[in-house]
């Protein structure tokens, strides 16, 4: 191969790599979700001869460039079309009533009154502060945390550390995948992929379910949820969070870190964790266990019919099961999914962890979850 051919081949290889990078970057920016990015990477859209680009001539390289740019343009057009059609989903002009036709007694009167107050509060908040579309987001991003149970026509938005493991167990029982919620392991719940997500349907399927199914979200005091996530992921052995998050956190925020801590990622302190959380240049990205609820479930974009709270989880959950006509024998499980001997994260526990932070760090952490506090009418913590 003469020098000119070598130069052209290397140049074309670089162009092909750059185009691939541009293509993937544009797709990820459109979809804002790891699931869709993985889906894209699983598609064999790259020309077969990229791995042997040393054999390319100028004409072949031009064809690759044209192919990649056309593909990028097509994907952008499809994404924009989906988003345009999805904008039909919006808050109704008035709060729609909750279907209570299956409630046959006054046992749930107090729970129902509380539920109506929560629904009205969130609706009014979104009408007041969401009018400028500040909460709008891309199609897949808005529904990627929503699970579907078609038998009883339920959409459940998963908020980690707010009873989601037991809610998935209940959904598996409702859908006929298990006879009892008490016999389903943690791994089966989170890694079994038995439940369908809303983003797995086509546009028509998504739109129909959003407009006809009962949509539920269960939330939790943001600071309690944050501390619960820290305790679960960093105070117990974990083969994912320690090497992926722990090592990066210790490396950046711990002065004179020891070799063992740097190699294992174990032993992250709550203060170090908060430094990571508040850092605009985090060494590793966010995680659903401490992401804001407003960015997980988009409550001002999706009109949720039912708003449960972790603080009244069993009462709210069992009332919801009555509303959707669940079997009478199905009750929401009360057991703790993991680390059952640990004290549950409550106000007193949170207060102990907040003592590790400076007043500025406490205030900034509250500010980080400010929207969640407002949306769901939680009292601001001691900061």
How would you summarize what this structure contains?
The protein has 383 residues and is mostly helical. The chain contains 17 helices and five strands.
Describe this structure in words.
- Keywords: Carbohydrate metabolism, Glycoprotein, Golgi apparatus, Membrane, Signal-anchor, Transferase, Transmembrane, Transmembrane helix.
- It is a single-pass type II membrane protein.
- Strands 3-1-2-4-5 form a 5-stranded mixed β-sheet.
- It contains 17 helices and 5 strands.
- Strand 1 and strand 2 (154-157) form a beta hairpin.
- The chain has 2 domains: 3-86, no CATH class; 130-383, no CATH class.
- With 383 residues, it is mainly alpha-helical.
- 52% of the residues lie in helices and 5% in strands.
- The protein has helices at residues 3-31, 34-42, 58-86, 109-129, 139-143, 164-174, 186-191, 203-212, 222-234, 241-253, 259-264, 270-278, 293-296, 313-323, 347-354, 359-368, 370-375; strands at 146-149, 154-157, 196-197, 214-219, 306-309.
- Helix 1 (3-31) packs parallel to helix 3.
- The longest helix is centred in the first third of the chain and has 29 residues, at 3-31.
- It starts with a helix and ends in an 8-residue tail after the last helix.
């Amino acid at each position: 191969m003469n020098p000119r051919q070598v130069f052209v081949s290397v140049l074309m290889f670089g162009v092909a790599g750059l185009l691939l990078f541009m293509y993937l970057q544009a797709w990820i920016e459109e979809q804002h979700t790891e699931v869709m990015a993985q889906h894209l990477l699983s598609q064999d859209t790259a020309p077969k001869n990229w791995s042997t680009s040393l054999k390319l001539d100028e004409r072949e390289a031009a064809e690759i460039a044209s192919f990649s740019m056309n593909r990028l343009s097509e994907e952008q057009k499809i994404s924009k079309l989906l988003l345009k059609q999805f904008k039909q989903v919006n808050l109704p002009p008035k709060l729609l009533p909750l279907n209570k036709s299956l409630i046959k007694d006054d046992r749930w009167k107090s729970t129902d009154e509380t539920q109506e107050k929560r629904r009205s509060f969130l609706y009014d908040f979104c009408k007041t502060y969401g009018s400028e579309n500040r909460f709008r987001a891309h199609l897949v991003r808005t529904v990627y945390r929503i699970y579907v149970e078609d038998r009883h026509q339920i959409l459940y938005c998963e908020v980690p550390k707010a009873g989601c493991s037991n809610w998935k167990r209940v959904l598996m029982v409702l859908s006929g995948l298990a006879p009892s919620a008490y016999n389903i392991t943690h791994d089966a719940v989170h890694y079994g992929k038995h439940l369908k997500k809303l983003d797995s349907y086509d546009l028509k399927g998504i739109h129909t379910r959003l407009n006809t199914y009962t949509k539920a979200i269960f939330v939790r005091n943001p600071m309690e949820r944050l501390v619960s996530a820290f305790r679960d992921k960093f105070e117990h052995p974990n083969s994912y969070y320690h090497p992926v998050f722990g090592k990066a956190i210790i490396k950046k925020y711990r002065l004179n870190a020891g070799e063992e801590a740097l190699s294992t990622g174990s032993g992250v302190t709550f203060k170090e964790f908060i430094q990571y959380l508040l850092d605009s240049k985090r060494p590793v990205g966010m995680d659903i266990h401490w992401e804001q609820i407003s960015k997980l479930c988009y409550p001002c974009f999706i009109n949720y019919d039912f708003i449960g709270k972790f603080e009244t989880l069993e009462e709210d959950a069992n009332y919801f099961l009555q509303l959707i006509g669940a079997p009478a024998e199905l009750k929401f499980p009360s057991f703790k999914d993991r680390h059952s001997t640990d004290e549950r994260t409550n106000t007193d526990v949170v207060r102990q962890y907040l003592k590790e932070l400076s007043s500025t760090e406490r205030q900034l952490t509250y500010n980080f979850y400010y929207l969640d506090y407002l949306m769901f009418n939680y009292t601001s913590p001691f900061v």
